[in-house]
Specification:
Layout lengths: L7 E6 L5 H10 L4 E7 L3 H10 L5 E2 L2 H6 L5 E4 L6 H10 L3 E5 L6 H14 L3 E4 L6 H12 L5 E9 L4 H4 L14 H17 L2 E9 L11 E8 L4 E7 L9 E6 L3 E5 L2 E5 L5 E5 L16 H16 L7 H20 L3 E2 L3
Parallel strand pairs: 1-2, 1-4, 2-3, 4-5, 5-6, 7-10
Antiparallel strand pairs: 7-11, 8-9, 8-15, 9-10, 11-12, 12-13, 13-14
Helix pairs in contact: 1-9, 4-5, 5-10, 6-8, 8-10
Length: about 350
């Protein structure tokens, strides 16, 4: 009889809004992972978190947690500007890392994080939970089977909304803390899913702006075109100015069928009028209630991360796979600044 997987002990770093679905997922997986400590440098954050999750042990002593050899996994949920330095300390301590998206503010910093984890021999996963939605996985299978026929084009729409109060929080939408606006903070999920489904994007042409609806440093509107590596053309629209917000969409049109992935649902339509539907509608955080989504998809990413450690393989949402969306985002913004088509680095 095979040995049962060992129970991991986890350190959670960062207790902002992103921590809630992670903690709920970890508590669901309590037979596989124990939350050993949850850390924030802010006493106020720790107090608020204690009220919401009274059973989770909190700590102000990061050094002690890093030095604890029984803690083997870490969940890095801080703002992006803190991640590279913390990853360096985590890998030095031999902890496997699951990082909230994005890996960091720039592609170069993200590449250094991936390299540091590889050199230390620790696993690195990124929380791209949209990959794990049943509807996303169904569309991936249909595309692998060639069920849509020859692909003609793809359309990506992310008509989200954030009120000004969201950007009034210190650091939000800034280059120095977040690395930018709508692309790296919100649209990154759908853009990563696009790449996961159709492969890397090779060329983009884009415009970017900050609309009159927001006072912020980063962009809240991006539109343009792109071509994936296979030659399929596409269109992109991403914003946090489309109040009150709507569900993001990926539409893939082929010669035999067209697929519409809309949040948690997938609709497959054929030229003969037949239609298939898959999945269930669920919140995706597209409006002012930006944490309004289930934590099931987080749980799937975390479970695979733990499986990868136990099985000695890369997680499905590994750090290296996340670099493609970082490169795409930087290419879109570069295209907008230059006013010309830009190749996306491979």
């Amino acid at each position: 009889m095979a040995d049962a997987p060992r129970r991991h002990r986890a350190l959670v770093l960062g207790l902002g809004a992103a921590a809630t679905p992670h903690l709920r997922a970890l508590l669901d997986l309590s037979e596989r992972v124990e939350i050993a400590a949850a850390w924030s440098r802010s006493a106020e954050r720790r107090a608020a978190f204690a009220a919401a999750f009274p059973t989770v042990p909190l700590t102000a002593d990061l050094e002690a947690a890093l030095a604890d050899p029984s803690i083997d996994v870490a969940f890095l949920l801080t703002p992006p500007d803190a991640r590279e330095a913390l990853v360096g300390r985590l890998v030095q301590a031999g902890k496997h890392v699951l990082c909230e998206k994005p890996l960091e503010r720039t592609t170069s910093a993200a590449e250094r994080i991936v390299g540091a984890c590889a050199a230390a021999g620790v696993r690195l996963a990124v929380m791209f939970q949209m990959r794990e939605r049943p509807s996303s996985r169904r569309l991936a299978a249909l595309l692998d089977e060639g069920a849509l026929g020859e692909l003609a084009f793809v359309e990506v729409r992310i008509p989200w909304w954030r009120p000004q109060s969201y950007y009034d929080q210190p650091g939000r939408g800034t280059l120095v803390r977040d690395g930018g606006g709508v692309l790296i903070t919100q649209a990154i999920h759908t853009l990563d899913l696009l790449i996961h489904l159709l492969g890397p994007v090779r060329e983009v042409a884009a415009v970017a702006a900050t609309t009159c609806l927001h006072r912020m440093e980063g962009e809240d509107f991006v539109a343009g075109g792109f071509v994936v590596e296979s030659g399929v053309p596409g269109a992109l629209f991403a914003t946090t100015a489309a109040w009150p917000g709507a569900t993001e969409e990926i539409r893939v049109v082929g010669t035999d069928a067209r697929a519409l992935l809309e949040g948690g649902t997938l609709r497959l339509q054929r030229p003969d009028g037949s239609e298939e539907r898959f999945g269930e509608a669920a919140g995706t955080g597209g409006g002012a209630a930006f944490m309004d989504f289930p934590h099931d998809w987080h749980r799937a990413v975390i479970a695979d991360f733990l499986d990868a450690i136990d099985e000695g393989r890369e997680p499905r949402s590994c750090g290296r796979s996340a670099l493609a969306v970082h490169r795409l985002i930087e290419a879109l913004l570069l295209s907008a600044r230059r006013g010309e088509r830009v190749r996306v680095p491979s």
